Amino acid sequence: MHLNECFAAAVALATAPVVGSDAAATNHSAENLHECFSGWLVKTTTNFYGSEELALPWSFGALCLGYCVGGCVMLAVKPKWTNSSRFPYIPFAFMLVFLQGPLSFMADYMNMTNDSIWHAFDRFMAAPLTVLELWKIATMYPHVRTGTFHAYFLAFCLAIFSFINSQTAQSNHDTVGFAFWHNMWHVYPLAVSVIMSFDFFVLGEYDAAAIGSSAEAPLSGEASFRKTPSVDSPKPRLLSTVVMEHTAIPPASPARGIGNLRAR
Hints:
mainly alpha
């Protein structure tokens, strides 16, 4: 029982028509699908169980601990939007550091060919953390730079693509293909760490939502200032009136000299 088989069964169930007598068969397929996923989740072995051909290099084990690096970088570049978001940013980072990293190392590197409970623990943790990562991507979208979001989302898509290929290689017992594609899957936390570190330390801290709200505030204040007349402001006057007042000839004073001459 492998994850690829469960996904194939899910696609077949979703695309199959449900009419008449096929309804009973569909219900039976749904039960089988549930058993497939639950069986894969608690399985304590992989397709390489007991294989002597799989020789994983030390770099494979080091990349398993990339989740620890990713969690530490999350704590180092904690953005401001996390203060007002419901996304559990800090717990998510600690789960990557203290749970997912060690579990991945123990399951994928130390016990890949062994029957071990570490495989079930690793799957139990990886599944909900993938959902949390999707939640994080959706939450950060209105806050980060457009280029940063596109790079982050592209890295996530490449990680899922690599994981699917690694599962296919495991089903085919392709040791070389599995090692390559599973390494690419584990590169994801390192890749997004580089993206967010560059955005934070090189481009500078940024929050698009906060910048948008602050940009609207001065405009509204200026508009209210223009609409509200000032008490001490003088009454508007025409320019021609001001010019005439400054250029008007003062009235002549009475000619006292002429009166005195007549009197004489």
